[in-house]
Design a protein that fits this description.
Length: 391
């Protein structure tokens, strides 16, 4: 009976569409990213395939029922057949079934956009290694953060890589910083039990989330102390959907220190918060790499790699960088952390730009307004027009 009521509640929350999908040239696979992708297309050429069970198209569901396959893969295939897109693209790049679409619809252009830092254990590349080969996985274009990660994608997926950095990061103009200010990028995850075994850890040496959180809390406490001793204003850049809960967590952790908490109210809030700070510190965050791409003086304190023993969690992976550098480390050593912050505060602009550029050249780039993506869209739209004129 309990299961029955849960099912009814789930069904009641769904949006039901009774008309079959409209035929549009462009189909976004998953709703994620629709807000930043849709402006590159006209409303009459763009639509979304929602596979997060928040919306169901009755017409497509009936077709799946007739084929006796009610899986999400079947629903996606039937939706594509009805919508007849010329281009399918996605922000959910860690969903292996997406890479099978090209073999099922060879006449449709298929693109993927890297949406975050990726790993090999418990993440995209581990999943692809376990499920299939590069002969099966195929797209036409992959818009990736940097050259190094592009090569890693090509180990498992065939297609053309376009190095253009982070799509969302590229959309936000860079703002001038306030002097003597430090931003710490939060990794707060309230829904994760501390007894949870981290997927990236080795089976023979399981690491719990408690061990990871303890390390990060020590870093935040050290940073608050460093800022207090050096007259630096500290800002915590939030990430949780419940900002009050997240702020309370940091108020309790740093009860002896002053800091400002900036909640993530909208997509651009985090970028604006790091831009307004002279220095940025992160332990595990895509936003940290995006900060470096924006030219920010950024400390990468990648402590997870050492405690878990995972190469893919090291700074800059899969680019081949030293374990320790001018602005990064994998060790929880306060003397070393002090050295990194001192370096960021003392290095002149020309030297910083030289070191930063050389270090991250294969890791992540900055492409204002996604000019390379826009160029690809213009090219494919021209090819459609040419095909139409020839028919």
């Amino acid at each position: 009976m309990i299961r029955f009521w849960r099912l009814l509640k789930s069904l009641a929350r769904l949006k039901w569409r009774f008309q079959q999908p409209k035929q549009r040239d462009v189909l976004l696979y998953f709703k994620t990213g629709a807000d930043v992708i849709s402006p590159y297309f006209a409303p009459n050429e763009f639509q979304v395939l929602d596979l997060r069970e928040s919306e169901v198209n009755i017409f497509i569901a009936v077709r799946c029922l007739l084929t006796r396959d009610l899986s999400s893969d079947s629903y996606a295939r039937e939706f594509i057949k009805a919508a007849k897109p010329k281009l399918i693209l996605t922000f959910i790049d860690n969903f292996p079934p997406y890479y099978l679409l090209k073999s099922q619809f060879p006449d449709i252009e298929v693109w993927l956009i890297q949406n975050g830092v990726r790993s090999d254990r418990g993440d995209l590349f581990g999943l692809l290694k376990a499920t299939s080969s590069s002969h099966t996985n195929q797209v036409d274009k992959m818009f990736v953060f940097g050259l190094a990660i592009g090569k890693k994608y090509l180990e498992y997926i065939s297609g053309e890589t376009v190095v253009h950095g982070s799509f969302k990061n590229n959309l936000v103009s860079i703002l001038p910083p306030k002097k003597n200010s430090v931003a710490y990028i939060s990794t707060y995850r309230p829904g994760q039990k501390r007894s949870f075994v981290v997927p990236e850890s080795q089976p023979e040496l399981p690491i719990t989330y408690e061990q990871i959180v303890t390390q990060r809390e020590r870093v935040v406490s050290w940073l608050a102390k460093y800022c207090a001793e050096n007259n630096l204003k500290l800002t915590i850049v939030g990430k949780d959907e419940n900002p009050q809960r997240e702020e309370n967590y940091y108020r309790s952790l740093l009860k002896n220190y002053k800091f400002e908490f900036v909640a993530r109210r909208q997509a651009s809030s985090s970028y604006e918060a790091i831009d307004r700070s002279e220095f940025v510190v992160f332990t595990s965050s895509t936003l940290g790499y995006e900060s470096l791409a924006r030219g920010k003086r950024t400390a990468a304190l990648m402590l997870d790699a050492e405690i878990i023993g995972a190469e893919a969690l090291k700074f800059g992976w899969p680019a081949k960088l030293q374990d320790d550098g001018p602005f990064w480390t994998h060790q929880l050593n306060e003397v070393r952390l002090d050295e990194i912050m001192d370096f960021l505060r003392e290095v002149d602009d020309a030297e910083w730009d030289k070191i930063r550029t050389q270090t991250i050249k294969d890791v992540i780039v900055f492409d204002p307004d996604n000019s390379k993506f826009r160029e690809s869209v213009d090219q494919i739209r021209q090819s459609w027009q040419l095909q139409q004129s020839n028919n």
